[in-house]
Specification:
50% of the residues lie in helices and 16% in strands. The chain is of the alpha/beta class. It has one domain: 2-enoyl-CoA Hydratase, Chain A, domain 1, CATH 3.90.226. The radius of gyration is 17 Å and the shape is globular. The protein starts with a strand and ends with a helix.
Length: 248
């Protein structure tokens, strides 16, 4: 089964996470596929916007836990980091629709999207500290900017999850809807019909003030993430998490 589906239609490239039996947990192969699709789409004038969605009741459970346990080497050399760099640097609008679980990178990747529509069932979680890790995707910079230092600190340090309406109030999602996928698709199509050069320049201007800071923070996060991932603390927490999930 192809775990990343890619369909281009009417100027919109739709990328679908297609591993619903595993809550769309992201593997190295899935990250590589997503990164390559974004890399190609960036240079394809026929693609005006990208729409990211997921099959099944959940957006994603985050990184595949077995990949974490087996990981070695620098995070900056990983498929996951390559995907995040492609997402950060993608010049065209990215629209996402989320439902059910949006865990770890399932939340942090949204900080790089231009419009996010959430189903009312969605809950968000960034349990990095709980797993003995540190935030990634520039979230340690972008999330406090969005919600304030203390609120971000509370969520990161406790691993507390939050729902769709709270995410909308924070500014993490644009709107919450019962027909979230249809709403997000309409937005992606509407943006794809706008004058393309004006769209590209506007996105670049919106991102310009924070780009260098986000790039620097992502690199620092990756170095600390590498150290954390190789630590006994994280390996123990990840093994405990995997054991609990296996018993469910």
């Amino acid at each position: 089964m192809n775990e990343i589906l890619a369909i281009s239609d009417g100027g919109v490239l739709t990328l679908t996470l297609n591993r619903p039996t595993k809550m769309n947990a992201l593997t190295r192969g899935m990250y590589s596929s997503l990164a390559e699709h974004l890399r190609l789409a960036a240079g394809d004038f026929g693609i005006r916007s990208v729409f990211i969605k997921a099959e099944g009741p959940h957006f994603t459970a985050g990184n595949d836990i077995n990949d974490f346990i087996e990981a070695s080497g620098e995070v900056t050399d990983s498929a996951g980091f390559d995907f995040l760099v492609q997402l950060r640097d993608f010049p065209k609008p990215i629209i996402a629709v989320v439902q059910g679980s949006a865990i770890g990178i399932g939340t942090t990747m949204l900080l790089h999207c231009d419009v996010v529509v959430a189903d009312r069932t969605t809950y968000f979680s960034m349990p990095f500290v709980t797993l003995g890790l540190v935030p990634e995707a520039g979230s340690s910079f972008l999330f406090p900017q969005l919600v304030g230092y203390q609120r971000a600190s509370h969520i990161f340090l406790t691993g507390q999850s939050f729902g769709a309406e709270e995410a909308r109030e924070m500014g993490l999602v644009t709107l919450v809807a019962d027909d979230a996928s249809a709403q997000a698709e309409l937005i992606a199509q509407k943006i794809a019909q706008q004058p393309p050069t004006a769209v590209l320049h506007t996105k670049a201007l919106l991102k310009s003030s924070s780009y260098e800071a986000v790039k620097a923070v992502m690199n620092a996060e990756a170095q600390l993430f590498t150290l954390a991932l190789q630590s006994h603390e994280a390996q123990t927490a990840l093994m405990n998490f995997a054991t609990k999930r296996a018993k469910k």
